[in-house]
Design a protein that fits this description.
This protein has 10 helices and 14 strands. By secondary structure, it is of the alpha/beta class. The strands form 3 sheets. Strands 3, 4, 5, 6, 7, 8, 11, 12, 13 and 14 form a 10-stranded mixed beta sheet that branches. A two-stranded antiparallel ribbon has the order 1-2. A two-stranded antiparallel ribbon has the order 9-10. The longest helix is centred in the first third of the chain and has 29 residues. It is rod-shaped, with a radius of gyration of 31 Å. The relative contact order is 0.14.
């Protein structure tokens, strides 16, 4: 018999004022209730009650056990209530991971609106252009670009993505506009670093098939938002997702280059570990992110 059941039985006996009466509350016969108490005392290694024909008296050990049992059972009841409450309303902590640029410029405003609508929610936004282990890091869900090698993750597609080379009008005025992908090799390109791997081989569409251009430049970073800022400042040509630079292109801060050669990229998607039952708060935030990004894309 487990200790929680022992505690429930013992408190029922004390509250009912008798072994038989306490046992009946739990569906036990008087004989079974007496056996249950004897077993509890044997497991405890101490006598808990002094029994007479008319009354029950707690021993010191029994009083200690009763107080501890009432406290533990109260905590369990409180936890159950909080879990039930959490299942019926949006509350609690959510940990979300996104690429740096997307998180700062697209996801953060969506989080602001979501948290304003749900004041009992707290959100930890983890910005990173790498690939964390979601289970080990305790992340509820993440946003990622590109195909995933990890088949243990569930994916929810948000929308299409296109990577494109872009530069500021000031850079173009100084260095000219590349007319074909191969000319990028002569330009100062802004290289994104993913861990130990630099993203310096840019892929384009050509008349005879895909073209891969090896690019180089004086600036390299593992922060996608910094790459975008450098491009806006005129420091070079960047290869960026349309999700990241669409607003800059619409405002004229950046200009898309080689539009006839760009390739459709992998979709932006939400991922989370398979087999995990997401809390309602996480599902609600996921829906808000999808809706918010769809509106921005539209």
């Amino acid at each position: 018999m487990d200790r929680i059941s022992d505690m429930q039985f013992f408190t029922a006996v004390i509250d009912a004022g008798g072994i038989g009466a306490g046992g009946r509350r739990l569906g036990l016969s008087p004989a079974s209730a007496s056996e249950r108490l004897a077993g509890l005392e044997a497991r405890s290694g101490a006598r808990l009650l002094v029994r007479t024909t008319r009354s029950l008296t707690l021993t010191d050990e029994g009083q200690l056990f009763l107080e501890a049992a009432r406290g533990i059972l109260a905590e369990i009841a409180d936890l159950d209530a909080r879990l039930r409450d959490g299942a019926n309303r949006i509350s609690g902590r959510i940990r979300v991971e996104t690429p740096v640029d997307l998180g700062r410029n697209r996801i953060a405003p969506i989080l602001d609106m979501f948290m304003a609508a749900h004041p009992d929610v707290s959100v930890e936004l983890i910005l990173g252009d790498g690939f964390s282990d979601l289970v080990r890091e305790g992340i509820d869900f993440a946003l990622r670009f590109g195909a995933l090698a990890d088949t243990s993750l569930v994916t929810r597609r948000i929308g299409p993505n296109r990577r494109l080379p872009c530069a500021s009008p000031s850079y173009i005025a100084r260095h000219g506009t590349p007319r074909v992908p191969a000319e990028l090799a002569e330009h100062d390109c802004l290289v994104m670093q993913f861990g130990n791997r630099p993203d310096d081989r840019w892929r384009f569409r050509g008349e005879q098939g895909d073209i891969v251009v090896q690019v180089k430049g004086r600036r390299k970073a593992n922060d996608g938002d910094l790459i975008r800022q450098w491009a806006v400042a005129g420091h070079g040509i960047a290869m960026k997702s349309v999700w990241d630079v669409g607003a800059d292109i619409a405002a004229g801060r950046l200009v898309e280059l080689l539009p006839d050669h760009s390739l459709a990229g992998s979709a932006l998607q939400i991922i989370y570990p398979a087999g995990r039952q997401l809390p309602r708060r996480s599902r609600a935030l996921m829906d808000a992110v999808v809706l918010g990004l769809d509106r921005l894309a539209g």
